[in-house]
Specification:
This protein is an alpha/beta fold. The protein has 21 helices and 13 strands. The site of arginine (ARG) has 9 residues, from helix 12 and strand 10.
Length: 566
C-alpha cells in the first residue's frame, strides 16, 4: 500500500474541485504531531501565479477535501500550508490488510524493468578487501530490494580475472604443483608475494611468466587450463566469504572481465564507425567535451584497458541482457572512471537513451582512529578473519542473556554477528566514509541490527507467553498506536524511495524508528496483564505482530536474519 500516493489523490481531487491546477502533487510527512500526519505545501508557489493570497487558496482547497475516508481533518496552517490528519478507523483497516498480507502490504511494481546490479567484483590476483566487502553488502541489499519490489534483477559479479599478472601467477602455480598451489592460494596475498619473488629473482621464471601471458591471450590450452584452475581456486575463496556473509551471489552471477575479451575489438570498431575515436600518442582515445583527459580505450601496443572492458560490459548489458537500469556498486574513488565510461557509452550509442546508468558510490572503510582499515601490523585485513571475529564477538555479546545449547549459540552468533557487520555498513549514508567499530555495531542500544533483532525476539516472547489465537484486527485506540500504525503503513513508501535513491540507510533509519516507537508503545500499553480488556489485548497483539512482520521483512531485504529468542 502506497500511503503517500493515496493521500496525494485526495489532494488532487480537492484541487480539481476548487478548479486549481497543480502539477506533481506531493504531500510530505509532518514534522511534528501538532502539524498533523501529513502536510501539503504546494499552495505557496501557486499563489504568485494566481495573484491571490495563499491562505485564501489553502482555505478553499481545505473546504474541498473529502474528510469521510482516509483523511479526517484538514487545516490551513502558517502562510498557506495544509495540515492533514488521518482517520483512525481507515488506518486500522489498512493495518489489518497489511497484517494479512504475506508481502506486508508491499505491492509489486506494475511495470517491472530489467536491472543489472554490478557488485562485489573482486580481483582474482589479489585478496578480496574491505572495499569489496562494502560493495558486496550494499549491492546485495539493493538487489534484494529491487527484486522484492518486482523488478527483474540480474546480479553481475564482474571479477577481475584478466591481465599480465596472471602469467606470473600461473607459472608459479605450475611450479609448486596444483595440489600445493590450492593450499597456498588460501592466502592470496602471500601467494602473490612468493610468485613475485620468484619473478624478480629468477630470470628463467620471469621469461616463462611473460611467455605465459602471451600464451593465455592466444588461447594456448595448457596455459588456459592453468589459468582456469587458478581462477577457480581464487573464486572459491571469495565464495567462502559470500557463504559466511549469506549473500545471494553464485557462480551463475559471475561474468568475468575475460568474458568480454572477444567483444573488445568490436567496441573499438563501433567507436571508430561513429567517428568518436582519435589517436593520441599512439593510443586510441575518446575525447569528451568539457573533459581534459580523454578516455583511452586501446594502448599503442594494442592492449585494452579496464575502461574498454566496461564499455563492452555496458553494451552487453543493455543489448543482450536488455537492462533498463544498470547500477554499479563500486568505491567512490572510481567515480571519474564511471562518469567517462557512461558518457562514452551514451554518446556513442552503445547504450540507448532510455537506459539509466548509475554509479552507486560508497566511501572508504576506516578504523576507529579515522585511518583506512588495516590490521595492527599495517597489512590488509583478511575478510574471512573479520567475519569470523564478528561471530566470536557476537557470541560474547549475547551469551549472558539466556541459556543456549552450544549449537543454538553458534547459530545465533552467526545471525547476530554477520547481521551487525552488514547493518553497520548499510546504516550510514553510503557515500560517507564508514568507521568500523565493533563495540558500536554490536551494541544493544542505538541504531544496530542487534537492537532490531532483540525487539523482534521480544515480540516473539510475548506470543510465546500468550497461549491463544492471535487476532487479525487492529484498532487504533490512542495517540501512540496512531503513530505506530502510521509508521508501519509507510513501509511501502520507504522501500520505494530507498530503491529509487539506491539508499539502504533509509531502510535502517526507518526500522530504527519503528523499533524505538514499538518499545515506547509496549512500555505504555500493557498487553498481557490481566486487567487489559480482551479486545484491546487482541488488537495490541495484532499490532505487535504487524510490527514484527515489518522488522522481519525489512531486515530480510538487508540480508539480515531474525531469531525467535535472544
Ligand atoms: N574489480 C574492480 C575493482 O576491484 C571492481 C569491478 C567493478 N565493476 C566494473 N564493472 N568495473 O576495483
Amino acid at each position: 500500500m502506497k500511503l503517500k500516493e493515496q493521500i496525494n489523490l485526495y489532494i488532487e481531487d480537492a484541487l480539481a474541485n476548487a478548479s486549481i491546477k497543480v502539477e506533481n502533487i506531493s504531500v510530505s510527512e509532518a514534522g511534528k504531531p501538532e502539524f498533523g500526519d501529513y502536510q501539503f505545501n504546494g499552495i505557496m508557489p501557486l499563489a504568485k501565479t494566481l495573484k491571490r493570497n495563499p491562505r485564501e487558496i489553502a482555505a478553499e482547497v481545505v473546504s474541498c477535501i473529502d474528510t469521510s475516508g482516509l483523511i479526517t481533518k484538514a487545516e490551513v496552517a502558517g502562510p498557506g500550508f495544509i495540515n492533514l490528519w488521518l482517520n483512525d478507523s481507515w488506518m486500522s483497516e489498512a493495518a489489518g490488510r497489511m497484517l494479512a498480507d504475506p508481502r506486508v502490504g508491499v505491492e509489486k511494481k506494475p511495470y517491472p524493468i530489467k536491472v543489472v546490479i554490478d557488485y562485489s567484483g573482486p580481483n582474482m590476483a589479489k585478496e578480496m578487501h574491505v572495499g569489496h566487502l562494502r560493495s558486496t553488502i550494499i549491492g546485495d541489499t539493493l538487489s534484494n530490494l529491487l527484486s522484492f519490489l518486482g523488478d527483474e534483477v540480474i546480479r553481475q559479479n564482474h571479477i577481475g580475472d584478466w591481465g599480465t599478472q596472471f602469467g606470473m601467477l600461473i607459472a608459479y602455480l605450475e611450479e609448486i604443483g596444483l595440489e600445493t598451489g590450492s593450499k597456498n592460494l588460501k592466502d592470496l596475498e602471500q601467494f602473490y608475494k612468493s610468485a613475485k619473488r620468484r619473478f624478480d629473482e629468477d630470470a628463467a621464471f620471469a621469461d616463462k611468466a611473460r611467455e605465459y601471458v602471451v600464451k593465455i591471450q592466444s588461447g594456448d590450452p595448457h596455459c588456459l587450463k592453468l589459468w582456469k584452475k587458478f581462477i577457480d581456486i581464487s573464486l572459491g575463496h571469495c565464495e567462502e566469504i559470500y557463504d559466511k556473509l549469506d549473500v545471494n551471489l553464485g557462480r551463475e552471477d559471475v561474468r568475468a572481465e575475460s568474458f568480454y575479451n572477444e567483444k573488445l575489438p568490436e567496441v573499438i570498431k563501433a567507436l571508430e564507425e561513429k567517428g568518436h575515436l582519435q589517436v593520441s600518442e599512439g593510443a586510441k582515445c575518446v575525447f569528451l567535451e568539457g573533459e581534459e583527459i580523454p578516455l583511452i580505450v586501446q594502448k599503442g601496443d594494442g592492449g585494452y584497458l579496464y575502461a574498454t572492458t566496461d564499455l563492452a560490459a555496458l553494451w552487453f548489458r543493455a543489448e543482450a541482457l536488455g537492462a533498463k537500469r544498470i547500477s554499479y556498486v563500486v568505491d567512490a574513488r572510481q567515480a571519474g572512471h564511471f562518469k567517462q565510461v557512461f558518457r562514452v557509452a551514451k554518446e556513442s550509442g552503445l547504450v540507448g537513451e532510455d537506459v539509466l546508468l548509475e554509479h552507486i558510490a560508497f566511501g572508504t572503510m576506516m578504523d576507529k582512529g579515522g585511518k583506512p582499515f588495516k590490521t595492527r601490523d599495517g597489512s590488509t585485513v583478511k575478510l574471512v578473519d573479520l567475519l569470523d571475529e564478528a561471530v566470536i564477538r557476537a557470541k560474547e555479546a549475547i551469551k549472558a542473556k539466556e541459556e543456549y545449547s552450544p549449537a543454538e549459540l553458534e547459530n545465533l552468533a552467526r545471525i547476530v554477528g554477520i547481521g551487525a557487520v552488514k547493518y553497520a555498513d548499510l546504516s550510514i549514508h553510503r557515500e560517507s566514509n564508514y568507521i568500523f567499530d565493533w563495540e558500536k555495531m554490536l551494541s544493544l542500544e542505538g541504531n544496530t541490527s542487534l537492537y532490531q533483532q532483540y525487539a523482534y525476539a521480544r515480540i516473539m516472547s510475548i506470543f510465546r507467553k500468550y497461549d491463544g489465537e492471535i487476532g487479525q484486527t487492529i484498532v487504533v485506540g490512542n495517540e501512540i498506536e496512531h503513530r505506530l500504525v502510521l509508521l508501519l503503513l509507510r513501509f511501502s513508501d520507504v522501500l520505494e524511495r530507498a530503491a529509487k535513491d539506491a539508499a539502504p540507510h533509509q531502510i535502517t533509519s526507518y526500522l530504527y524508528d519503528v523499533t524505538t516507537l514499538f518499545m515506547r508503545f509496549y512500555e505504555q500499553n500493557p498487553i498481557l496483564r490481566e486487567h487489559v480488556e480482551e479486545s484491546v489485548r487482541q488488537s495490541r497483539l495484532a499490532l505487535s505482530a504487524l510490527t514484527a512482520n515489518v522488522i522481519r521483512q525489512g531486515l530480510s531485504i538487508l540480508g539480515i536474519g531474525v531469531v525467535e529468542r535472544l
